Amino acid sequence: MTRNPFANHPLLLGFEEVERLLDRATKSASDGYPPYNIEQRGDGIYRITLAVAGFGDSDLSVTLEDGQLIICGRKPDDAERSYLHRGIAARQFQRSFVLAGGVEGAAASLENGLLHIDLKRVEPPSVVKRVPINTL
């Protein structure tokens, strides 16, 4: 299927980055593991909570890279245990969230099998720049 990107409109200059972010957001959708919540806790304050039962803080990593929040969980197999039934999912995962410009990570905490990641929006200072007109 051929896409007609909205950024090709002649009045929309410099919106290629928005289109790239939309593409990245649609590609980062995964199988739904682990389940998560996103809540707004105030003006420009957000919390992402992932259900990571069985994972310890040493099994998890949270990174911010190129406007993207990446949460990885890797748990080594316990070869000493012999399961008769294994119903608790402890498989490795990677969950990504595309962040808007100015949103950055503030803190992460692990409590009762829930990984909380707090984010906040930092507004850049408003800059007005005069463009000089050169005569030729």
Explain what this protein looks like in three dimensions.
The chain has a domain at 34-78 and 86-124: Immunoglobulin-like (Sandwich). The chain is 9% helix and 36% strand. It has one helix and seven strands. The protein has one helix spanning 16-27; strands at 36-42, 45-51, 60-65, 68-73, 93-98, 103-111, 114-121. The strands form two sheets. It has a four-stranded antiparallel β-sheet with strand order 1-2-7-6, with no helix packed on it. A three-stranded antiparallel β-sheet has the order 3-4-5. Strand 3 (60-65) and strand 4 (68-73) form a beta hairpin. The N and C termini lie far apart (48 Å).
Largest sheet: 4 strands, antiparallel
Radius of gyration: 21 Å
CATH third-level topology of the domain at 34-78 and 86-124: Immunoglobulin-like
Structural class label? mainly beta
CATH architecture of the domain at 34-78 and 86-124: Sandwich
Instruction: Write out the strand line-up for the largest beta sheet, numbering strands in chain order.
Output: 1-2-7-6
Shape summary: elongated
Span from first to last CA? Answer: 48 Å
Q: How much helix, percentage-wise, in residues? A: under 10%
